[in-house]
Amino acid sequence: MAIYSTPAEVSSEIEALVKEHVSMDVDLSPDTLLEDDLSVDSLERVELGVKLEKKFGISLPDDKIRQSATVGDLIQLVLDAQNASNVH
């Protein structure tokens, strides 16, 4: 597990992980829709969540992952989880 200290680093790593997960080399932005643009259903979002947990050494609630609609939602979930773990 590497440490990603800035939101830009976190965003870049998440975008790379999403591209790998969907096997697509597409330009992503925080506004990219997981389901409509990338055909990622709720089960696949949970799988992505597990990959994010492993990559960043965090815990993400499944319900929050399933509710994530955009790449930006995933980025914010990771940033929030990192901030919460730094508080304790």
From TrEMBL:
Keywords: Fatty acid biosynthesis, Fatty acid metabolism, Lipid biosynthesis, Lipid metabolism, Phosphopantetheine, Phosphoprotein. Gene3D superfamilies: ACP-like (1.10.1200.10). GO terms for cellular component: cytosol; membrane. The keyword Phosphoprotein applies. Pfam families: PP-binding. GO terms for molecular function: acyl binding; acyl carrier activity. Coiled coil: none annotated. Residues 8-82 form the Carrier domain. Transmembrane segments: none annotated. One of its GO terms (biological process) is lipid A biosynthetic process. SUPFAM superfamilies: ACP-like. InterPro entries: ACP, ACP-like_sf, PP-bd_ACP. The keyword Disulfide bond does not apply. This is Acyl carrier protein. It comes from Dictyobacter kobayashii. The lineage of its organism: Bacteria, Bacillati, Chloroflexota, Ktedonobacteria, Ktedonobacterales.
